[in-house]
Amino acid sequence: MSEDILNHQDTKSPRSNERGLRPKMTFLVSSCLGGLTFLKSSAIAHKLESIAAEATELFRRYGRIALHAYKQDKANPRPKRHADDTAFLPAALEIVESPPSPLGRAILWTIMALFAIAIIWACLSKLDLHASAEGRTLPEQDVLPVQAQEAGRVQEIKVLNGDQVQKGDVVMVLDPTEGASEVTRLEREVAELTVRAVRLRAQLEDDPLKAFAPPANIRPELANELLPLHRHLLTDRIEQQRATLSGLDRKSESLQAERRSLVAEVERLASTIPLMRSRVDAKEGLADKGYSSRLQAIELKEGLLDREHGLSSSREKLKRAEADLTQAAEERRQAVAKFRAETLSELADVEDRANGKRQELERAKQLERGFSITAPDSGTVQQLSVRSKGAVVTKGQTVLVVVPENDRLKVEARLLNKDVP
Prior knowledge:
Blueprint: H1 2-40, H2 49-75, H3 83-87, H4 91-97, H5 103-124, E1 134-139, E2 144-147, E3 152-157, E4 164-165, E5 170-174, H6 177-203, H7 208-211, H8 220-289, H9 294-370, E6 372-374, E7 379-382, E8 392-393, E9 398-404, E10 409-414
Antiparallel strand pairs: 1-10, 2-9, 3-5, 3-8, 4-7, 5-6, 7-9
């Protein structure tokens, strides 16, 4: 009976040896294949191709053997033995039936594989050297400086170094209080001069009050404030001019009446003098013949001389009256011309001042827009020199630079000699 058991155990021992070798071979094959996979990815893989081919063939052969042994084990499973059963077996069979744990060998093979991988990695890999140094980034091409158009206090900073901006984006805002008050003052002055120019143009028209219309290029609140005042001034100026012309017209009418009276007097004297001259001639003829008194002839002649003198005096007065009438008409014409000339001169002065104020207003608006600093082109913000709100910038100060898009940057750094490989 014991011999049968021994024979049975002897027949099973080769299979037991195969089961003990199979995990070792599998682990060896997997470890080698892993090592070869790593080597193929390295620079010396082409040197090991021949060795890899032979090793692969060897592993395939052992793999087939291991697979065959595994199938045999499946086809002829061994009976399970308890620890008490193996205790009564001979020492050699007990060792075969109770093989040692493969954990120790697995750990050993793992350590060896990791050591080999570490050696290969140390031979083939490259190490990165890190060094800390101060430096700056500079563009390869010219940058676009962004300058403050006016001096002011920083109210808001909208960008930081490295931010991307588009052309026209606001990068910094200055306090616009002073600029806004200046714009308001100039807008009022321009509106006042504009309404004044409209009033002066209306003074030159036949119907000034109808021609006085509010301009369309001023704000409604300013128009409502200025139009009543200038309409009142226009009315006063027109009434004053009309009073002046009315006085001159009355003077002309008086001179015309005097002229008509003198004309009538001259015509009367001119028509009676020939008759009186005839009477004087007749009276003198009768006096020469003794038919009439010489004294009456002298009196008639004296009356004729008085009438002739009166005619001459009336004609002189008529000339003076006509001269005065002409002078009155000239005075009226000069008054109208003077009024028109003064109005045109004042209008030219007002328009000139208005143009100057408009230019100042445009500059003030540009300065107000200058309180919003914008990017001149699309790119990256660099060298931001103002970093806190409330900081004061001067006119023309460069607050940052913009590196144009698609421009490459270069790094300028200062390294120690020991950090240079």
